[in-house]
Amino acid sequence: MKIKFLCVGKTTEAYLREGIKIYAERIKHFVPFEIVEIPDVKAKTVTNINFIKDKEAEAILKNISQGDIVILLDEKGEQYDSKNFASFIEKNTVQNAKCMIFIVGGAYGFSDKICQIATHKISLSKMTFTHQMVRLIFAEQLYRGLTIIKNMPYHNQ
Question: Are 69 and 92 in contact (CB under 8 A)?
Answer without folding.
Answer: yes
